[in-house]
Design brief:
By secondary structure, the protein is mainly β. It contains 3 helices and 19 strands. The two termini are about 25 Å apart. β18, α3 and β19 form a beta-alpha-beta unit.
């Protein structure tokens, strides 16, 4: 069983009407035909490194699948000699790839991005890759307008093999990422949710601000996530027996009727978290949060 510190939901728009929500994950997999029959690694050279840390520093918006920014990967060589770095990225333009600060010649075939090192790395070496890229995600991001509240949201859905639709990654379940930071720059009238704990909201040029999220739990590539919309933050806390308070952070559409319709159901999440922590053990991400982004 896998747990996610951030869950994207379509539920809230339906529970107010007493309707049954669509199975968002299953629906998305039919929309993303490449989501996906993949059963093997895209390139065997991906097996030669272990991802230790991932940072995404991206600009996104609520009404398009466009992504612009930089992905930084810190990894360790586990098979030597290591003379070629490769990751997966679908149909995006790569403007720069640096390994340990040195610009590399990029090979981008629309499925993988790779670079050959002039000097091979040794077993155990730690290295940093910075990839600057842009484009429109063909999968992995869904843009939807709520028929109930009229709010448009762009939300990622990377399970099982669609993370490469919006960021350059190693899609291997046996290699969990030890920690991650997700920095999302959006227009000032929008908010951006992601995994972990919000560290800062930093003012940016051009009437934008950056939401800086930090998570220090191991995470599978497909669980790194983002959601952008005109949100309001409605946060509550669970209080499991024998534990400190656990943040339950909800980014919900910034429409007054939305919170009126759904406050009681959102508040019940704290009771559920208390109960299941008592029955099954403390919620695994208690030091960060449990959360929803309405999408």
């Amino acid at each position: 069983m896998k747990f996610s510190a951030l869950v994207f939901i379509t539920l809230l728009a339906f529970v107010a009407k007493g309707q049954t929500p669509h199975n968002f994950c299953s629906k998305a997999k039919t929309q993303f035909p490449q989501a996906k029959s993949t059963t093997t690694i895209a390139d065997v050279d991906e097996n030669k490194y272990d991802v230790k840390y991932q940072k995404l520093d991206l600009y996104m918006t609520d009404n398009t699948t466009a992504v612009v920014g930089t992905a930084t990967t810190i990894a360790q060589v586990v098979q030597a000699p290591f003379n070629r770095f490769v990751c997966e990225l679908l149909d995006m333009q790569v403007s720069s790839l640096k390994i340990n600060g040195v610009a590399q010649t990029v090979v981008n075939d629309g499925v993988t991005v790779s670079a050959t090192l002039g000097t091979p790395l040794n077993l155990g070496d730690i290295f940093t890759v910075e990839i600057t890229y842009s484009g429109y995600a063909q999968e992995g991001i869904i843009v939807n307008t709520s028929p109930t509240y009229g709010v448009t949201a762009a939300a990622t859905l990377s399970e099982s093999y669609s993370a490469d639709g919006w960021w350059p990654c190693k899609q291997v379940l046996t290699d969990k990422i030890d920690s991650c930071d997700v920095w999302l720059t959006v227009d000032n009238d929008l908010m951006a949710g992601s995994n972990g704990v919000l560290q800062n909201i930093t003012p940016m040029p051009n009437n934008r601000h950056r939401f800086e999220w930090k998570s220090r739990y191991p995470i599978d590539y497909y669980l790194i996530s983002s959601s952008v919309a005109n949100y309001q933050d409605y946060s509550i806390y669970a209080h499991p027996v024998g534990s400190d308070s656990i943040l339950i952070q909800n980014y919900i559409y910034n429409v007054p009727q939305n919170i009126i319709n759904n406050k009681a159901r959102i508040d019940s999440t704290a009771l559920l978290l208390d109960y299941f922590s008592e029955v099954y053990g403390l919620y695994p991400f208690a030091n960060e949060k449990y959360g929803h982004c309405q999408a």
